[in-house]
């Protein structure tokens, strides 16, 4: 008999990996590209999600957590400009040798200009 249980979705697998690695805090700013992952993380009750008001704040909070605890800091942001908003904070972590994981969304290549094309029509 074949197992018919559906495979976990990518956001569920990411959350399982975070929990398996002992991630106790996830800092972030929710957007359409990371909404399901953040919801799944909160739903497990295995850690604390700390909402932030800006993408750079999320990364800087994760850096502070890593420095204070010696654990890896973990942050999540959405796609597009959100990634460019964290460049300086990422440079700070890299220069300081601070352990950090950043999970960010992506836009499918076919969707890159879909909204703009609709506005032009």
From TrEMBL:
SUPFAM superfamilies in the record: Thiamin diphosphate-binding fold (THDP-binding)
Any single GO BP term: isoleucine biosynthetic process
EC numbers, comma separated: 2.2.1.6
Any Pfam family the entry gives: TPP_enzyme_N
Cited InterPro entries: THDP-binding, Thiamin_PyroP_enz_TPP-bd_dom, TPP_enz
Keyword Transferase attached: yes
Gene Ontology cellular-component annotations: acetolactate synthase complex
Keyword annotations of the record: Transferase
Gene Ontology molecular functions: acetolactate synthase activity; flavin adenine dinucleotide binding; thiamine pyrophosphate binding
Keyword Endoplasmic reticulum part of the UniProt annotation: no
CDD domains assigned: TPP_PYR_POX_like
Domain Thiamine pyrophosphate enzyme N-terminal TPP-binding: 10-107
Protein family membership: Belongs to the TPP enzyme family.
PANTHER family: ACETOLACTATE SYNTHASE CATALYTIC SUBUNIT, MITOCHONDRIAL, THIAMINE PYROPHOSPHATE ENZYMES
Name this polypeptide is given: Acetolactate synthase isozyme 2 large subunit
Record organism: Tropicibacter naphthalenivorans
Gene that this sequence comes from: ilvG_2
